[in-house]
Specification:
The chain is mainly beta. The chain has one domain (about 5-105). Helices cover about 0% and strands about 50% of the residues. It has no helices and 8 strands. It has strands at about 5-10, 30-40, 45-55, 60-65, 70-75, 80-85, 90-95, 100-105. An 8-stranded antiparallel beta sheet has the order 6-5-4-3-2-1-8-7, with no helix packed on it. Strand 7 and strand 8 form a beta hairpin. The radius of gyration is 13 Å and the shape is globular.
Amino acid sequence: MRTFKPLVIVILLAACSGGETVDETAVEPGDQKLACAIGSGAELTDSCTLQRVERDGTAIYRVNHPGGGFRLFELARDGSGLVPHDGAEGAANRLEGDQLEVQVGK
């Protein structure tokens, strides 16, 4: 069974509004830096990047971790935030000003 470390990311909402389509197999991460914390008790650092990926006409947001891993998210159907694209775990979203905090896992 595949398990994921807890992940917290902070995304500027402008980053989710559009942009170029990016190949999800690209080796180089996107230019949009994100604050993220990977693992229990980790502190937020600007160490992750965001890429917008088009798949079957749907915008998918790929958060690249500094160690080479990544998580895929999509916009919630009700527009309330981001949900994991793989559907494995739910995500808790909190909006503060123009920043969206997304937490996956515990």
